[in-house]
Amino acid sequence: MAEVSxxxxxxxEVPIGTLTRVAGDRTLFAFSEAYVADRNRVVLGLGFKDQLxxxxxxFRPTQTRLTPFFSNLLPEGHMRVYLAERARVNPARExxxxxxxxxxxxxxxxxxxxxxxxxxxxxxxxxDHERPGRxxxxxxxxxxxxxVQLKLSAISDARGGLTIPAKxxxxxxxxxxxxxxxQRLPENEFSMMTLASLIGMDVPAMQLIDIEAIGNLPxxxxxxxxxxxxxxxxxxxxxGSAVHIEDFAQIFGVYPEDKYRRAxxxxxxxxxxxxxxxxxxxxxxxxxxxxxxxxxxDMHLKNWSMIYPDRRRAALAPxxxxxxxxxxxxxxxAALNFSRTKLFSEFSxxxxxxxxxxxxxxxxLVLETARETVALFHxxxxxxxxxxxHSADVVRAIDDHVRTIPLx
Length: 408
Description:
By secondary structure, the chain is of the alpha+beta class. The chain has 11 helices and 14 strands.
């Protein structure tokens, strides 16, 4: 197999640019001339706009890694290692990992070899030879879902169950598997997302499903016990076509390992206010308030996204990854600064007012939405906390935590 040095980047299946690997394991990204010249172009990402709203076309080369936008399309941690092993790719060399997984990525981006060859069945990690070992066609998974947690892309079968696609690509559901570290994590997330939906937030369809009921689970994953959380993908339309999204690590040009450090909720609010509608702003405040009330200390940059329903205008994407982390870890602060502080105990109407002023948001809308969210949280939490499938430890942790928040 000849060395592949150029990957073609497609958006909605239309070529818009290339990723080129050159000497020294460096990678260069460039938009195509046609994409640059198209004044009605579809939007790849907000981070590709300059201060005047014009398309940025000059990019620095990266070494071993890709630029943050493309790096954030790849999984992290154990999931990256798991998929890289099955694709026979060094997980640190992102050009080859993206080449292996590029047929099924978050949003409407896909990546394929530019030499006319189809997506690889057995990827190589160095351009010279394949790594030794098992047949690359066996049990290969060819999708990428960003994040650390073990998760799979699944399709709904004729009986209403879920099956992992035989060829490792496709699917309109995300299946989040049980954690070996955190007890009943899928039940925790299902409960918090259900509560958010009752309060009025934009939450995708979801269900808890027994591991044994999932068809075609990859090798090793069938050994997990308990229930998984299945969530309908909001980056896939009913007809299976892709809907473009990008997370805020991509928007801010931040690598995944910096998702807790390089920005604040105030920064996210500024983008939502500038690019979205007043309802997007209200939804942002609902989610921020709610996740503070449940003690979610893991709402980092990759847990907020924008979506492009008409391919050009950005809006706040549906909610995801709502978990009460204080049930497992005694965090006293949020993943990011609110405006001046990240301490839960300092989340007050004064702090929200400061966020609104600095992010250029209507203060009345921000504060009234927060008050409404607090009231609805107390109403639905008291009514449902004994009925949701989370553990008693989650109930105790949230009840204790809410008493420490000034806004509550």
